[in-house]
Prior knowledge:
alpha/beta
Amino acid sequence: MTTSTTRPAPARTTRGLPLTGFVAHSARGRFNSAFFSVMGGYLDWHMRKRKTKAFADLPRSVVELGSGVGANLRYLPAGAQLIAIEPNPYMHARLRRAARRDGVELEIRSVVGERIDLPDASAEALISSLVLCTVSDPAAVLAEIRRILRPGGRFSFAEHVAAKPGTPTHWSQRMVRRPWAWVFEGCSCERDLTSLIASAGFTRVEIAPYRIHTPFLPFNTHIAGTAIA
Ligand SMILES: C[S@@+](CC[C@H](N)C(=O)[O-])C[C@H]1O[C@@H](n2cnc3c(N)ncnc32)[C@H](O)[C@@H]1O
């Protein structure tokens, strides 16, 4: 008797080398794909005003880091072409369906943001939402973003960040850090992404902090903005 498995193969570089840095967990990978599919609209509703500003006037060709199941397709212009850097294979089927529904021409690259397989200065715009909290090495990812953006190209982001020390939100972020990271595949609510983005070598950076109001207290402190390569 033969058996078959539906577990997707591990992510590989374009040269077929296995990638380290992201290991898809079959149960949590499926859970996160379903979670963001169900909760995506709710989360986006809280972030919509800031995303609408940060993702305004995107060109037709966009690279996205950690596209998930397609939360940001709605911000792309009509007839957009999206290169999605998405190492979690459990996101791919939903992302493809969402792109077909929204008329977005999609190319998925199963690589991590720490090692993007795109040439230097090849992208006009790169977007991300709720991803720099999860990548293993945000400084390396920001260096990759700068590398692939053409001079003057734009990185637009909407991310959640650490609260000010001494606040109840900061305390809650500390309390939940282990189970939160386990459930959400490495996500940390304690990252000072404002400082990281500001010191990543972009020529111009605009970052606006804001707060959303959800029952997920550790998740409520956010930033949105744009950094120019
Ligand atoms: C919290 S989800 C956010 C998904 C989507 N951007 C959204 O706003 O709903 C984080 C996404 O980042 C992806 N991710 C995790 N580690 C990554 C890495 N090292 N490089 C690129 N993407 C990564 C995950 O697979 C997941 O799709």
